[in-house]
Amino acid sequence: MKNQVILFCLVCIATIITPSLSYEFENEENFDCEVLMKNERLVKGLADCLTSDELECGNVMFSQVKKYAPEILETVCAKCTDQQKATFKKCTNLFMQSHHDDYEAIMKKMDPENKFRGPLEAFLAEP
């Protein structure tokens, strides 16, 4: 279940960057963000991690997500594969709907000047 958090964090966004021009995710083929959304403890842990000032979050995966989330936000998942983009859209939209206040807090923390919010939300609205 914890490995599933990595892709969800693309909530905000979740990745492990490799030297290539793509992202590599652990257990990507088994990831189900709908299951993750039902685990309030994990969702709260992720939201707390992404909004805290500490780089390390006590959870290695959350810390990795936090480290790379700014690039993903700024580039609107430019290095993502088509499948990763689809998963990113689905998970982020689910998170926005079910945990709107947490989404807003994460966006305020990661994009305080709202530079990337417009492009991100336009991307999320695409079919």
Provide structural commentary.
- Helix content is 59%, strand content 3%.
- The protein is mainly α and 127 residues long.
- It has one domain (34-125): Orthogonal Bundle (Antennal chemosensory protein a6), CATH 1.10.2080.
- A two-stranded antiparallel sheet has the order 1-2.
- A hairpin with a 5-residue loop joins strand 1 (16-17) and strand 2 (23-24).
- Pfam families: OS-D (PF03392).
- Keywords: Signal.
- This is Chemosensory protein 12.
Radius of gyration (Å): 13 Å
CATH level-4 homologous superfamily: Insect odorant-binding protein A10/Ejaculatory bulb-specific protein 3
CATH topology: Antennal chemosensory protein a6
Number of strands: 2
Low-confidence stretches: 2-7, 14-20
CATH class: Mainly Alpha
Give the helix/strand class.
mainly alpha
Number of helices: 7
- Per CATH, the architecture is Orthogonal Bundle
Neighbour order of strands in the largest sheet: 1-2
Q: Which percent band covers the strand fraction?
A: under 5%
CA-to-CA gap between the ends?
A: 28 Å
| Helix percent band | 55-70%
> How is the main sheet built?
2 strands, antiparallel
Question: How many distinct domains?
Answer: 1
The H-and-E topology, N to C, reads as HEEHHHHHH
What is the 3D form? globular
Protein name: Chemosensory protein 12
InterPro entries: A10/PebIII, OS_D_A10/PebIII_sf
Signal peptide: 1-22
Pfam family, one: OS-D
